[in-house]
Amino acid sequence: MTILKSTLENINLFPFLDYPENCTDVSIYIPSLFINFISDHSHNIFYQDFEFYNLLGNGGFADVYRARSRVTGQEVAVKIIEKAKIRKNYLVNRVRREVEIHSRLKHPSIVELYTCFEDSNSVYLVLEICHNDDLQTHIARNGPLNEDVARHYLKQIVHGLLYLHSHNIVHRDLTLSNLLLTKDMRVKIADFGLATRIEPGQEHKTMCGTPNYISPEVVSKETQGLETDVWSIGCMLYTMLVGKPPFDTREVQATFNRVIACDYSVPRDHLSPEAADLITSLLRKLPQDRLKLSAILNHPFMTKHPSSHFPRKMVSI
To answer: In which residues is ATP bound (predicted)?
Structure first.
């Protein structure tokens, strides 16, 4: 199958995001950026070049569709962002940043952005398609994961996040709904709408993210760094194993109050001592007290030998 590629193929314009060694065979894509949004030029790709199928998901200002390139035959996901909505909600810079960051990323645990284009009404991001929905939907349908499967997914998530953090990129919206599952049930990090690059000397205090997964420093609008993603990993692991987020309530403010107080309990009768210890090592109120991302893979929970089968290949699209 012919893969959608850049007209800037094999040119590394962003050396600070060099591919890991096991990805050097994949050509780099730096997309054309949006007329009136980021730059004043675009590639010759148009809406008519794609055949669109079913809706995969939607949000406040974007819809994602399954599609196929009429040129290459490749199946993709296309995120359609309405220009009027992002202008109205002052989100132009957010879309700029999303594309600027996502277009530079190449890792097996990160959804790939192949290309992008625009017309007078919308911006289109052409993305790698993941056929088995997201991890949140998977758990809602099938119940909590056993520890072997959760460990299997967590390793992939941590590897992807180590790649991001090695380039000082913080995701800021790591949730189970932003972890997509491929045909062979591998997990991929998606949605870089809130991601940002932490520059030396910069302070980030923006209140953003998903209530059940954001850290105390984000809720309190204190300085936040890469450690906020580590907190989110703790929330995701808890949810994978227990079936609900650790700070979940019926009201957002009540959830925020629990997050700030670090008010949660680990069902130790349900989890192994290793799983409980990893969760409590990640969900610590002070960022500096949390387990370092680089240490997660060496935690006893992660080095435990698997005793069960991993998810079978399946296709839900």
So the answer is: 79
Q: Which two tokens stand for residue 178?
A: 């932003």
Displacement of CA 16 from its chain's centroid (Å): 20
Q: Which residues pair with 122 in a beta bridge?
A: 82
pTM (two decimals): 0.83
Q: Is 312 inside any structural domain?
A: no
What is the rounded average pLDDT for all residues in the chain?
Answer: 84
Q: In this structure, is residue 294 part of a structural domain?
A: yes
Q: What would the pLDDT profile of 238-258 be if each residue is shown by its tens digit?
A: 999 999 999 999 999 999 999
Distance between CA atoms of 135 and 176, rounded to whole angstroms? 5
Binding residues, as ranges, are 79
Which amino acid does the sequence have at 207?
M
**pLDDT tens digit sequence for 254-263:** 999 999 999 9
Residues annotated as part of the active site:
173
- Beta carbons of 242 and 268 less than 8 angstroms apart: no
Distance between CA atoms of residues 284 and 114, nearest Å? 37
Residue 288 and residue 140 in one domain = yes
Which residues define the annotated binding site for ATP?
A: 79
